[in-house]
Design goal:
single chain; 158 residues; alpha+beta; Aminopeptidase; seven-stranded mixed sheet; 7 strands; globular
Length: 158
């Protein structure tokens, strides 16, 4: 079941750490693969998870980036991850769809994200949800194997 998590949920922190370990193996390095991240930066955004029987199987968050006055206008999808044993069940898609719904309901105009060039499943997920490649932004500018994507939310779905 898709659920909203607290930013301090220990299970979510565990999955975020697992995600980083998996990326280190994939890219054969010891550095964190994305910008330094503290779940507290999601304040004003949301952290969603797919939970079954008290076990957290998938997560993803929205980190506010830009504001128009007091309203968030753009957010970044962060720490999308599904436990390896739960893959192939479209749980990542359920979390992604939930983040997009939340963003629309809160009046955001755009969501953006970064993924790596070796993450074919993630790229396929984002592109199938309508995300388009955009120039690298923020922390990711100049990082060749980082691919950034954006989804305009003010366009009516067809």
């Amino acid at each position: 079941m898709l659920t909203t998590l607290s930013f301090g949920d220990a299970r979510a922190h565990h999955l975020m750490a697992e995600q980083q370990r998996e990326l280190r193996r994939l890219y054969q390095d010891t550095d964190e693969r994305t910008e330094p991240f503290d779940p507290a930066t999601l304040a004003g955004g949301v952290l969603l998870g797919w939970e079954e029987g008290g076990e957290l199987l998938a997560i993803g968050g929205l980190k506010p980036l830009d504001h128009l006055g007091t309203q968030i206008s753009r957010a970044e999808i962060k720490r999308m991850y599904t436990q390896p044993g739960a893959r192939g069940r479209k749980l990542g898609r359920a979390v992604l769809d939930g983040l997009i719904v939340w963003a629309r309901e809160h009046g955001l105009g755009e969501v953006v994200l970064e993924t790596g060039d070796l993450q074919a499943a993630a790229i396929g997920l984002y592109e199938s949800a309508g995300f388009k490649r955009i120039p690298n932004f923020g922390y990711y500018v100049g990082i060749e194997n980082s691919w950034c994507y954006g989804l305009e939310l003010n366009i009516e779905e067809g």
